[in-house]
Specification:
Layout lengths: L2 H13 L12 H7 L5 E4 L7 H4 L7 E4 L9 H7 L2 E4 L5 H17 L1 H9 L11
Length: 130
């Protein structure tokens, strides 16, 4: 999530009277330690939102996954614990489109081969990277 996107999310929450505290966690243990009093968790990336993450939080009401899918969230546990799960369709669609175009262009022009050869110190010609 870019700084401008985070700022937009922060403003939206503030207008609803909700304080947003942005933190970065990589593991289940970090999420548990850092979100003890959280009303909501906004998950970017694939942070594991498991039963162990949600169970100890009595004030936790919902988890929002900033992305299209919810594959990193234990949906059975959220149902049993009465938590609301949200996703964010359309998140990073421009970035994904750029990646797809760059990958296609890389395949067409075989840039990976040229990159590998140059990193080895070679000066590849068109015949070497077919």
């Amino acid at each position: 999530m870019s700084a401008s996107e985070l700022n937009g999310v922060r403003k939206a929450y503030e207008s609803a009277g909700i304080e947003l505290e942005a933190k970065h966690f990589n593991s289940e243990a970090e999420i548990i330690a850092g979100c003890q009093d959280a009303f909501a968790i906004l998950a970017t990336g694939n942070s594991p939102i498991t039963r162990d993450v949600m169970a100890p939080f009595s004030p936790l009401k919902f988890v929002q996954r900033c992305g299209v899918g919810v594959n990193s969230i234990d949906l059975d546990a959220t149902t049993e614990l009465g938590k609301i799960i949200l996703n964010l369709p359309g998140f990073c669609t421009n970035e994904l489109a750029n990646l797809v175009i760059a990958t296609i262009m890389g395949l067409i022009h075989n840039t990976t081969c040229y990159d590998q050869e140059i990193r080895k110190g070679a000066c590849p010609n068109a015949g070497r990277c077919k």
